[in-house]
Amino acid sequence: MNLQDFEFLRNFVKERSGLVLSADKQYLIESRLAPVARNAGLADLSDLARKLRQPNVPRGLDVDVVEAMLTNETLFFRDKIPFDQFRAVIVPALLAARAHERCIRIWCAAASTGQEPYSFAMCLKELATELVGWKIEIVATDLSREVLEKAKSGVYSQFEVQRGLPIQMLVKYFSKAGDAWQISPELRAMVQFRSFNLLNDFSGFGTFDIVFCRNVLIYFDQATKIDVLDRMTRAVASDGYLVLGAAETVIGLNDNFKPVLDQHGLYAPSADRRNATARRLTAVGGAL
Q1: Which helix (H) or strand (E) holds 242?
Q2: For 155-166, what is each residue's pLDDT tens digit?
Q3: Domain ranges in the chain?
Q4: What are the phi and psi torsion angles at 187 (to 5°)?
Q5: CATH topology classification for 3-69
Q6: What is the CB neighbour count within 10 angstroms for residue 11?
Q7: Bridge partners of 176?
Q8: How far apart are CA 98 and CA 76, in angstroms?
């Protein structure tokens, strides 16, 4: 693969997914896209780049290229802190704030193979007595079709359930499925999995009380981070929460969110954002 084809493939992946591949990642592109080229009956990556440059890209080839470059690392109760915050800070605050509506909407962006949304579903099941009569909606999205199919099945290997999943949760919410484990139908029914690209408009999703967008922004360049966070502003309720990964921040990127005191990675809409929302609602009410 020559430098021109390498640069083309880097830009192609970035335009389709936001994923930024540095100039030293040629080995990664070669290792991940060589199987895609072979499966498509192409001679090499230069041949693949030639196909992708055509006005009419062969059906599905562009998707296969992007999915091959995605990193789908995840595990149950990953990083622990966000789940402690969910139980101790977020849910109690929302139970008080939503006492009238009795409805909580959650979005797990870049949900990969489903361990994150299912972990939150388990947390909520453990709070079942406090949530009697409440409507809980968990929307989990990812760009990769392949990982979403696995997530929907809820089937995980012995290795996957041993990564972060407490044994009591395994016994309580999973059943043996051959050499693997399958999460209960009740928990699978709590999560709606959808194919979605964060570069696209997500205003149609409506407003969420909690948005988990963890370990995603680290793969984007500065401009893309700013764009995604700006649109996240409108996706998070004015008294809701945004949760980012341990290596991610809104500082210097977005003024509409502020860190929650003593809660690393947890953000709430800023006072200016809440006031702007209140003024907008007042204006709408006056017009009616």
Answers
A1: strand 236-244
A2: 999 999 999 999
A3: 3-69, 81-282
A4: -75, -35
A5: Chemotaxis Receptor Methyltransferase Cher; domain 1 (1.10.155)
A6: 11
A7: 181
A8: 27
What is the model's pLDDT at position 71? 84
* Nearest alpha carbon to residue 264 among 118, 80, 111: 80
- Active centre residues (catalytic): 32, 142
Give me the count of residues in the chain: 288
273 in Cβ contact with 237 (< 8 Å): no
Compute CA distances 278 → 94, 132, 190, 259, 274, whole Å. Answer: 18, 30, 31, 21, 6
d(CA 252, CA 230): 12
Site of tokens 């017009």: 287
Between CA 204 and CA 202, with CA 153 as vertex, the angle to 5 degrees is 10
The pLDDT tens digits for 37-51 are 999 999 999 999 999
Token pair for 205: 């999703």
Please give the torsion angle defined by the CA atoms of residues 34, 35, 41 and 42, in that order, rounded to the nearest 10 degrees: -10
Which residue shows structure tokens 């997914």?
A: 17
CATH topology classification for 81-282? Rossmann fold (3.40.50)
Q: Which residues pair with 106 in a beta bridge?
A: 138, 210
The tokens describing 173, both together, are: 């919410």
